[in-house]
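Researcher: Let's run the pair from yesterday's discussion. Sequence first, then tokens, for each.
Model: Starting with the first of the pair.
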Amino acid sequence: MMSQTFGVEVPFVTHLGFELALFEGGHSELHYEARPEHLNSFSVVHGGASMTLLDVTMAVAARSVQKDMGVVTIEMKTSFMQPARGPLTARGHLMHRTATMAFTEGTIFDAAGRACAHATGTFKYVKRRPIGAKSGHPQSVISTD
């Protein structure tokens, strides 16, 4: 499967190595295989890496219906169901949208299709500033600051 582009460069997402597979119609899919430095002391994917994967997956689902806008995370609730190991697939869904807000959910699955973690998130749509523009606000990105 060919990787798509997120439409904006997010250094932390690049560092983690997330690959975008679906970005359309209120749905998203990302692929991720954690490197050794992304594991916890139990040799499974660190919860922070899993939460970042879910955050980005939900943000991409929110952006997929209006790709010229950015989103910022307002809140996120995550449930960890079992350890995440090996190649992971995260799927996101835009459940509801208003003019300014997106209500989403996302789930991380392992290679056997077992759900490892699930999250719900609320995002605010924000206009992107032109590259290099100066203001008191950070450049809007896929999801987080």
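Model: Moving on to the second of the pair.
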Amino acid sequence: MLDNLNQLVKENVQEAIVNNSAVPNEQNEAAISAASGSIMDTIKQHLSSGDLSNLVDAFKGGNAEGSSVAQDATASFTDKLAGMGINLDTAKGIAASVIPVIVGKFVNKTNDPNDSSFNIHDVISKVSGPDGKFDLSDVTRIFTEKTDANGDGKDDSVIDKLKGLFS
């Protein structure tokens, strides 16, 4: 799945990274990896911190490009580019032009049942880690349905559904 995300990044960074004289050619691959890594790290951070409402909004709300996930990944990518010696203003411009577009395409591909290159099971299993804190079927249902998990006659919020996953 990370290979697919790297490929998605490669398909969308030709002008911003590869043809950009501010990014040395020998750092193109590192910059591409930093972009995809920033997106995955941000998703993992949102999951592990319990900030699931923003994560769900990105995957379900229809504005992935303007989501806090895209904003956080943009900031992370900016820091990584600056750490590679790229001027901070240039790094901000590259990140702002690349990350929101990629996050939007990533979410669209994840939500597209006809696109098997990304699926929510793969995304969550890759970012949840080997500690077993996330039950994949429970987390996946958050993105696709509302349920009366407590038997109280009300649809539970995303946070209510996930309280037990972080204990």
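Researcher: Give me one sentence on the second I can quote.
Model: The CA atoms of residues 7 and 14 lie 12 Å apart.
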